[in-house]
Amino acid sequence: MIEVLSPSLLGTMNRAAQDVLLPAASAGAPIPAADKDLPEGAGASSAVGPAPAAAPATAAKPKKKKKQGLGYWMRRVLKEDRRAAKSFDPDVVHDLRVALRRCRSIARAMRDTDGGPGWRPVKKTGQKAFRRLGKLRDVQVMKEWLVKLAPENDPVRQALLDSLSQREQKLVAKSLKAVGKFNRKKWKKLIPGLEVRAQRLELDGPQAQQLALSRLAMAHRAHWHAVRSGAPADWHAVRIGLKRFRYVVENFLPVRHALWGDDLKRLQDLLGEVHDLDVLWERLPQAGPVFDARERARWRSVIRREQAVRLAEYRAMMTGKDSRWKAWRASLAAQTAERQGALDASRPAPVTVSESRSRRAAHAAA
After folding, report:
1. Residue 118 falls in which region: left (phi positive, over 0), alpha (psi -120 to 50) or beta
2. Is 207 in the same domain as 91?
3. Residue finishing a domain among 201, 221, 245
4. Residue 338 has what pLDDT?
5. Residue-wise over 316-349: b if at least 16 C-beta within 10 A, else e?
6. Which pLDDT value is given to residue 87?
7. 262 with 161, same domain?
8. What local confidence, expressed as pLDDT, does residue 13 receive?
9. What is the pTM of this model?
């Protein structure tokens, strides 16, 4: 890296400046902006002249609002709800469910630290819409997987796509009804009070870290059940556990989210796709007579292969001495212990029995 020279030093240099800068440029090192923009042939004559005027400072771009916090996601629900009233495109359905899920997850976490009223209505108000949209989303995801895994002339793909399309139309009608009944007025009324209460939980503070440790422990228990059993339901439980841990980190531990966010999202995506393939396997018999023994064996092989690739990546990240579990737990536990140590150090030392007697004796003598 080239050291930027001061104007006084530049005034004493001529051709030596090129001897320093040109070899460095040929080696790939960056040229300081003041020299890089010189006109061709300026060379030494420009170096001994007055220092070039400083470029005007570029105005700082306003920072984007962070996508975190209960208030943000509750307002996002209202925005996505308006979109859903116009269209049940797969992306719209997904975005509305994500916003609702985050609100429900944050409210569930806050109940553990703030036992006051108001958190349960967050779940109840959007519960029916959330469930209806979940069924619709499952059908839409199954259609995407069929297109991805099989060629257009595959008989099972064609038959199941027809069946899923018919079911999708019915679910769109039910979802539209459920979204129409979503109580926007009640939801809006909840936002100001709950947003203030959620903000009382100190970001990256001891309560938030303890909450994250609790969610991490639950997800880790689910992980060990899944690794031992291999059952689809157990892998799905890991996905839910990691999702709840991720939302706590995302909304209450921003420093750690900057470090762990990409890994948490990747893990959730991997386990989400494993679950999608399990659901697809359950739906395949709905293709009808074309799903015979031969097709069953072929599709089972395809699905197992896709799942094996994703579970292998998951295990590489989450098992062994360098697993993310160990790193996350060690970081959270160390910080919690450090804060507790600082708290203990700030407290006055306890008075021993002998000290207490000495103080009483001195008081009596006085």
Report:
1. left
2. no
3. 201
4. 57
5. eebeeeebebeebbebbeebeeeeeeeeeeeeee
6. 85
7. no
8. 38
9. 0.72
